[in-house]
Amino acid sequence: MSLSATDLAPLAAPAAQRIALRDVRKTFQLKPGQSVTLDGRSSDRIPVLSGVDLDIPQGAFVTVVGPSGSGKSVLLDIIAGLTEPSGGTAAIDGRKVARPHPETAYVFQQYALFPWRTALQNIEYPLEVRGVGRAARRERARHFLHLFGLKGFEDRYPSQLSGGMQQRVAIARALATDPQVLLMDEPFAALDAQTRDILQSELLRIWEQIRTTVVFVTHSIDEAIFLADRIVVMTARPAQVKETIAVDLPRPRDIDIRNSDAFNAYRVRVWDALREEVSKAQRDWALAAAYNA
Ligand SMILES: Nc1ncnc2c1ncn2[C@@H]1O[C@H](COP(=O)(O)OP(=O)(O)OP(=O)(O)O)[C@@H](O)[C@H]1O
Q1: Which of 25, 26, 28 has most ligand 1 atoms within 8 Å of CB, for mutation?
Q2: How far is it, in rounded angstroms, from Cα 214 to Cα 210?
Q3: Is the CB of 72 under 6 A from ligand 1?
Q4: Parallel, antiparallel, or unpaired for β 181-185 and 213-217?
């Protein structure tokens, strides 16, 4: 599928944005009666982030990996303005994030589509909210639907689409608003391996043309390497950035790049950074059990 620059013309002039996190901390106060055991002591507070510093330049594709429960989703929520940090600041374009921003789009693991709207109407929705006229929003929605290979599925409802198709609609909906920042929280985790591979390639193909800033959380080391300009490795909870690894693989990337020696070297490097943190998080399972009880 070929695209011209005008096909992907932004709705507004792009700003020189970047994401800056400074000493971002987050501690949750548990509900009355709930407690966790931390370092052998009972506590009604759970520290999740303990001073995250991170700079993400405009147009970068950053993936975030870290042990389960290390606060990756909480970090995205803070960048999205959905959760307030307990300390430190998150800023986009030098402006502190205080609430959800219309220029930031979020794609979740579960597709979060409106079941009563068709695929096309789902993609149209955020444009409708922004006051884009009916004809213009329909055209733009159709364009993004086609971009994700869903021509002919315009009038299908989410329940009539496979998981992979639903996630294509969700990403198309996010990108149709021309977001300055796209946050993706394990968007392909619920998909089968083949669909996941295809969607990674589709996402890259489209991102390479629009170059919006992406922060993508994943549990898959291969996915993290394949997509990223740089990989942020988080420590076990309470999390900080352990290491940032620049991925110097050529673009555009083909799925076969995973068989290369260079790719394998990144696999080893990322796992080296993660291994100790995963072990620490596993020792923390007692906490999870106590917390979930
Ligand atoms: N609203 C909340 N109240 C209390 N604790 C919370 C809240 N939201 C998240 N947490 C806790 O914060 C910790 C980090 O959660 P988060 O979902 O960000 O981890 P994660 O790294 O995304 O995990 P996973 O990789 O398993 O998805 C977890 O222990 C979770 O239980």
Answers
A1: 28
A2: 11
A3: yes
A4: parallel
pLDDT tens readout for residues 195-243: 999 999 999 999 999 999 999 999 999 999 999 999 999 999 899 999 9
What count of Cα atoms within 13 Å lies in the side-chain half-sphere of residue 45?
6
pLDDT per position as a tens digit, 18-68: 899 999 999 999 888 888 777 777 888 999 999 999 999 999 999 999 999
User: Which residue shows structure tokens 């089968």?
Assistant: 192
Count of residues making up the chain: 293
Which amino acid residue places its CA nearest to atom 6 of ligand 1?
28
Report all structural domains of the chain as residue ranges with CATH numbers, in order of start: 17-100+210-292 (3.40.50.300)
State pTM to two decimals.
0.90
How far is the centre of ligand 1, averaged over its atoms, from the C-alpha of 143 (Å)? 36
Atom of ligand 1 nearest to the CA of 70: 21
